[in-house]
Amino acid sequence: MSRQFAIGDIHGCSKALRSLIEAINPQPDDELIFLGDYVDRGPDSRDVVDQLIDLESRCQMTALRGNHEIMLMGVAKAGLDPTIWSHSGGQSTIASYGGSLEKIPQRHLDFFYSLKPFHETADSIFVHANYVSSIAMAEQDDATIYWKHLDFPHPMPHYSMKRVFVGHTPQPYGDVLDLGHLVCVDTYCFGGGYLTAYETKSGDRLQFDRHGHERRTPLRSFLDRVKKVFK
């Protein structure tokens, strides 16, 4: 039976990604959906992109665009001021490419150009950052789907009643935020948390830290803890 994984923000954590892919051992019919932010902050953005490109030949892979890819390409190809990007972890990406964005290989540029704004299936929506519950994904604005963090109150269920998977908003303690209608799998790998792959059918989770070590006894999510207290 094929599997479908939603995978959160990698941010240059190449060892975590390598361990995660090895643990999943994706087969040709498996679907891996990456929610964006592959570069910046972590130690080896270049290797992350290499791994993702190589993965395309092994399974069904969908890669979404994150705000950090927007910043990178804005500086590298549109001549935008690099100040904001540099302060957001861009220097680590430049270092991974040998000190210059001019050294980014063409196949990496092609990968960045190919990234999608969102992915929608019969029962799920995958998007980098956020959504407006009352409108179709094709009508969402860029500020929402790439930049807006999950605020309180959290978004209501999407009008389509499809479950929505997002990244972008780092979750404390490495726990996945699972509200049923909304799942956030950015578990803060570069900042001491984990890179998470969430199997959308079973709810199973694989997590690895930035050094590539598996989280063998993951904490329950906040909601799971609350449910246990009130049983």
Set down the secondary structure blueprint:
Layout: E1 4-7, H1 14-24, E2 31-34, H2 45-55, E3 60-63, H3 67-78, H4 83-96, H5 106-114, E4 118-120, E5 124-127, H6 142-147, E6 163-166, E7 177-178, E8 182-184, E9 195-199, E10 205-208, H7 222-229
Parallel strand pairs: 1-2, 2-3, 5-6, 6-8
Antiparallel strand pairs: 1-9, 4-5, 7-8, 9-10
Helix pairs in contact: 3-4
Question: Quick summary of this structure?
Answer:
It is built from 7 helices and 10 strands. The protein has helices at 14-24, 45-55, 67-78, 83-96, 106-114, 142-147, 222-229, and strands spanning 4-7, 31-34, 60-63, 118-120, 124-127, 163-166, 177-178, 182-184, 195-199, 205-208. Helix 3 (67-78) packs across helix 4.
Radius of gyration: 17 Å
Unreliable stretches: none
Range of strand content: 15-25%
Q: What is the N-to-C order of secondary-structure elements (H for helix, E for strand)?
A: EHEHEHHHEEHEEEEEH
The backbone outline, from C-alpha atoms, is globular
Major sheet details:
5 strands, mixed
Instruction: Count all strands and give the number.
Output: 10
Report how far apart the termini are: 34 Å
- Residues in helix, %: 25-40%
> Mean pLDDT, rounded to whole units?
94
Question: Helical element count?
Answer: 7
Secondary structural class: alpha/beta
The neighbouring-strand order within the major sheet is 3-2-1-9-10
